Automatic annotation (TrEMBL):
Residues 33-51 have a biased composition (Basic and acidic residues). This is Sporulation lipoprotein YhcN/YlaJ-like protein. Residues 24-88 are annotated as: Disordered. InterPro entries: Spore_lipoprot_YhcN/YlaJ-like. It comes from Kyrpidia tusciae (strain DSM 2912 / NBRC 15312 / T2) (Bacillus tusciae). Keywords: Signal. Transmembrane segments: none annotated. Residues 1-24 form the signal peptide.
């Protein structure tokens, strides 16, 4: 049944493309109306009332509502999800702290982190697999919820570096869809 094989190949690619597109789309926010005087959200996630300007000749009916207290942050847990660039920086730092790793590159695709590591040239054989596992565990600890794939393959690391560089230069992630799909298929083979 060749259509099953086609479905197996195209379904993950479709999911990848959908997650990349939805993750990179700007959020649609309705334009603010000048007469909209309701509470606004601050950067820390709490609501604050806006100063209401009363037209001349009218009196303000209400005093501004008091600012609600922010719930205390749980130890070790962020108040809100970190922005992707912060997450990537944390993941890069964690990977580079692993002994034997000389450099790393992280590309986030949806909730998957693709990590390319440059290893000390003296490291060979099973030690490479051990370091990759250590990097994977270190990166997973930085921000839970990401599926992590690590490679030390020189070609794949160079490709990840090119993708990360292109995105930092402002190129849309969608221009790298085929490249990312190929890398994902190598790092996360179907089981």
């Amino acid at each position: 049944m060749p259509w099953i094989a086609t479905l197996r190949m195209s379904l993950p690619l479709a999911v990848l493309i959908a997650s990349v597109v939805s993750g990179c789309a700007p959020s649609a926010a309705p334009p603010e109306s000048p007469r909209d005087t309701g509470p606004r959200m601050t950067e820390d996630g709490t609501q604050r009332p806006e100063e209401v300007q009363t037209p001349p000749g009218e009196q303000a009916d209400k005093a501004p509502a008091p600012r609600p207290q922010q719930a205390p942050q749980q130890a070790g847990k962020p108040a809100s999800p970190s922005p992707p660039d912060t997450v990537m920086r944390q993941m890069n730092d964690a990977a580079r702290r692993v002994p034997g790793v000389e450099g790393s590159t992280v590309v986030l695709v949806g909730r998957t982190a693709l990590v390319g590591v440059d290893l000390d040239h003296k490291i060979t054989g099973s030690k490479i697999d051990s370091i990759k596992q250590s990097v994977k565990e270190a990166v997973e600890r930085t921000d839970g919820g990401y599926r992590v794939a690590v490679t030390a393959d020189v070609d794949l690391v160079a490709r990840l570096r090119d993708i990360a560089s292109g995105v930092q230069q402002g190129r849309p992630v969608s221009t790298f869809t085929d490249e990312i799909a190929d890398i994902l298929s190598r790092l996360l083979p179907e089981t």
